[in-house]
Every structure is written in C-alpha cells, then in structure tokens.
Amino acid sequence: MLQILVGGLWFGVAMESSNQVALIALGHTRWAAISGATKAVGMAALIPLGWRFGGFPGAMFGLAASDVLRYLVSMIGVLRFGLDGRAQDFAMTTLVAASAFAGWFAVQLLIQAGWTNVVFHSFVIATIVTAMWAPQHLKLWRRYRDTGHLFFEETDH
C-alpha cells in the first residue's frame, strides 16, 4: 500500500508543485485554487469508489488518483501560459520508476540466491539508485562548477 501512496505523492508533490510555483510566479493563483479543488473533489469521489471496489487498498488508490488529477489540472494551467514541462516530467518519472524497479528486482534476485539480510538489501538498493541518478547529479554539479549557479543566474535589480 505504501507504493500506491508514494505513486500519488510523486504526482501530487514532486511534479505538481513545480507547476504550482510557476503558475503563482506568473500571477495565476486561480489555477492553484482550481487544482486544489480538483484534488478535494477527486478525493471525495475516488476514495469511496476505491473502497467500494477494492476495500482499503482501493481507497488508497483513490487517494493517489486524486493527486494525479491535481497534477493534470496544473499541467493544463501551465500549458495555457506557454510552459511545457511534460518531457522533463516524463523523463524524471521514468527514472524514478526504473530505479524503483531495479532495486526491487535486485532484492528478488538476492532472496532467490539465499541472501535475506535486510541491511545488505538496503545497501544494494542504495547503490543501484545512486548509480542510476548519478548522471543527473553530475549534470547539475557541472552546471554549478561552470556557472556558479544551479538553475538560473542571479541578477541584481
């Protein structure tokens, strides 16, 4: 069940928050309210629906799905104002899913080989995830090394 909630959090916190910040920075706070309302309506509809068809796991899925709806609304908002982060969102989502799968798969192989020590499993997962995310971190480090800034150059007004 934790995986279901984390999936919803990925959309609701990690990806949707950058859309929210962009919309607010552009002065379009109405879109922040609309996406928040979308999540509330989604929760009111999808949690009971999930409970009806899947019990507690179904309700958790309904909660996660409400975060996906919130993300979709905020994405529509940023697209309306000329910002498009879908390619970056897709790339990061793919990397998160691939690193999660790789860690899970490695642990399954370890268990089949008789390695059941949870601490060792954690070390293997940390190593795999770090190796998969290292290129992203290296890109940011190089940008900082070359420019002194991670994202945007600071200017004095």
Largest sheet: none
Distance between the termini: 49 Å
SSE run: HHHH
Gyration radius, rounded: 19 Å
Which range best describes the helical content: under 10%, 10-25%, 25-40%, 40-55%, 55-70% or over 70%? Answer: over 70%
Structural class of the helix and strand makeup? mainly alpha
What's the number of helices? 4
Average pLDDT works out at: 91
What is the total domain count? 2
- Weakly predicted, low-confidence segments: none
Strand content: under 5%
Tell me the number of strands. 0
Coarse morphology? flat
Topology:
Blueprint: H1 2-25, H2 29-80, H3 86-112, H4 118-147
Helix pairs in contact: 1-2, 3-4
How does this model look, in words?
85% of the residues lie in helices and 0% in strands. It has two domains: 1-83, no CATH class; 85-157, no CATH class. The chain is mainly α and 157 residues long. Helix 1 (2-25) crosses helix 2 and helix 3 (86-112) packs antiparallel against helix 4 (118-147). The protein has four helices and no strands.
Short characterization:
This protein has 157 residues and is mainly alpha-helical. It has helices spanning 2-25, 29-80, 86-112, 118-147.
